[in-house]
Hints:
alpha+beta, Helix Hairpins, Heat Shock Protein 90, 5-stranded antiparallel sheet, binds adenosine-5'-triphosphate
Amino acid sequence: MTYVVITFLVLLFLNIYSSKISQELFYKSKQTSMIEHCLLAASEIAELDIVNSSTVADAVSQIDSLGITRMVITDQSCVSIYDSANQSYGSYIIFPEVIQALDGNKVFSWNYHNGAMQSRAATPIYSYGTLIGCVYMMEYDTEQGTLIQSLQKNTLWITLVLELAVILFSFGFAQAFTRRLRRIMLSMRIIREGEYSHKVIMGGNDELTVLGDEFNDLAEKLQTSEQKRSNFVSDASHELKTPLASIKLLSDSILQNDMDIDTVREFVGDIGNEADRLNRMSQKLLSLSRIETQADSDCEIVYIGPTVEKVVRMLSAMAANNNIRIITDLTDDCPILILEDDLYQIIFNLVENGIKYNMKDGSLTISVHRQDDNAVLQITDTGVGIPEDSLGHIFERFYRVDKARSRKSGGSGLGLAIVRIIVERNRGQIQVASTVGQGTTFTVTFPAFDMEDEV
Ligand code: ATP
Ligand code: MG
């Protein structure tokens, strides 16, 4: 409809404009030719010694009056001396053109009606500088009038044919367009029902094809995130089920068997440990969901060193229990853009792992240094190491290399998943290198924050 209306308006404008222009052109050419004619007659008459009906009739007969319907010559008081349409002279000719011409003007007027064009021109006659009368000519022309009329008719026809073509084209185009749009809408409905693997095939090579491709990408992302979500829910419930089952089993044993008080105490202690594990796991799950929903823009300028020291203070008791020596090298510290809480979580999880999966009497080295435009944090332990085939999985949720060992140390398999999300969110990178039986090194790199650039 928009196309139709716009083209209709444009064609209407062109129609009116071309008709006006053609009339204008006719007007101009007629004006010039008729005024020239009048001036010629006026000059012939001005040269006469005696001006009367017969001398004037003689003079004007010399002029080529082809196309002139009526020619009138008057004296200075509007009385006709010669009239080609009326042989009886001496009557008053009080046409507006004659009156204006006797005022000394060259006059031309024109009207167009029903295919006929009537043009009138009048000029004064001066003899030796004195006004002695005027020449009036009238032309009634149906030929040029018909020409204008047929031109207008033709333009109107062209307009109508073009408009019809536009209507047909717009209709066809709208049909094709809505058919393809409907295809996308149908696909949207299918995906809304949960059929994420559905793909829309648009064909063609236009914006709708691009829209279709974008839509397919979106559906694929939805499918992946839906898959992740359902995997996460099933993994999480499975992980939560294990300590709950242990608690149930332990409490049933206490209730059903006659146990001595020491065994009961041991069982209740185990129930407490499982409850602690549940507690830790739910805290990690909460922190994971908090990180995932946190806005990207939250960050502050922090130095890595003080946070490392804070973590070391926090975990020093745990390290001491396992007789693990912590060595720190923070001399080449530099600031980065991150939330301090997030940085704390990264360092805490990596250092905690370094202690948990270390050998007895082992050591843990934490160093911070600047390399080109990056701040590099390196945590190296002398622990059990990670087998090569597990290296690609340790950042997955709930993944643990040695389930028994990890469970014994209370691990939920969420620490490194949290670390990776935070690192990537802060434009950082994390790498791991490990040798089984010798130890593991985690290297975290962040773009260093340059104070000078910022000032
Ligand atoms: P938590 O959620 O309490 O951190 P977790 O330590 O088991 O539990 P992650 O920190 O994600 O979980 O680590 C995943 C697995 O990777 C661990 O279970 C462990 O098997 C292995 N791992 C991580 N860090 C080390 C390390 N420094 N040395 C050896 N193995 C490691
Ligand atoms: Mg851990």
